[in-house]
Design goal:
Layout: H1 9-24, H2 29-32, H3 54-59, H4 63-67, E1 78-81, H5 82-87, E2 93-101, E3 111-119, E4 122-123, E5 128-129, E6 138-140, H6 146-150, E7 162-164, H7 167-180, E8 189-191, H8 192-216
């Protein structure tokens, strides 16, 4: 028999105290993401922001810089990002449902936020934490423009059925043709639908074998 470790209540309590102190002494978001606007460096880490971000730092806002000015920190409001507006024609935004503010920050402009994301017109039904809240890239969607901002004309996705083989496989296929005396110069293509059906069949066979092993058991 394996000897059980004796429960040591004092050691367990000491471990909990160490974990609590480490949690309590961890740096706040207001310390980690504080920024010196003259040198464009973060005092906590000493790292300097990329030169390409300097213009956005001067003209754009962080997420909580916008939320701290609103009633209930903007719960229920829509926010988007400048980079999304420039990159995509379809609507991309977050609907904020939950906020955890860092009250130690001077203007309460740091914290965490959660919401539902709509990316390129497709809305996720899973509640997620909003990433990159410290980026100077956020914009608030005015209430009277929210309905127009949501409107999206769905674009049909182009379904690609055939793709070319990788260079090495393509060279092997042509070499095999030449070896067999076949002078066909037609470009070999991969049928994605057949490939997907084959992958599905393989996974089904794998599941069937694993379930059969569980039923039969392992021989001793």
């Amino acid at each position: 028999m394996v000897r059980q470790k004796p429960y040591r209540p004092i050691a367990a309590m000491a471990k909990k105290i160490r974990e609590y102190r480490a949690l309590k002494n961890r740096p706040r978001d207001s310390q980690r993401f504080a920024l010196d606007y003259e040198t464009m460096t973060r005092p906590f880490t000493g790292k300097r922001l990329p030169v390409m971000a300097w213009e956005d730092v001067k003209t754009e806002n962080r997420l909580f810089t916008l939320l701290c000015r609103l009633h209930r920190f903007g719960i229920g409001r829509m926010v988007t990002r400048k980079s999304w507006l420039w990159a995509y024609e379809e609507p991309c935004y977050w609907v904020i449902t939950k906020v955890k503010v860092d009250y130690t920050a001077e203007n309460m402009d740091h914290g965490q936020a959660w919401g539902y994301r709509t990316f390129r017109g497709k809305t996720s039904d899973q509640l997620k934490e909003i990433p990159k809240v410290m980026y100077h890239d956020w914009r608030m969607v005015p209430k009277h423009e929210e309905e127009n901002f949501k409107r999206c004309t769905p674009v049909e996705e182009e379904r690609v059925q055939y793709v070319p083989y990788p260079p090495l496989l393509r060279a092997l296929i042509f070499a095999q043709r030449q070896k067999e005396g076949n002078l066909d110069t037609e470009e070999p293509m991969i049928d994605l639908e057949c490939f997907a059906a084959l992958q599905k069949r393989r996974s089904a066979l794998r599941e069937e074998r694993s379930s059969q092993k569980q039923i039969e058991g392992t021989p001793v």
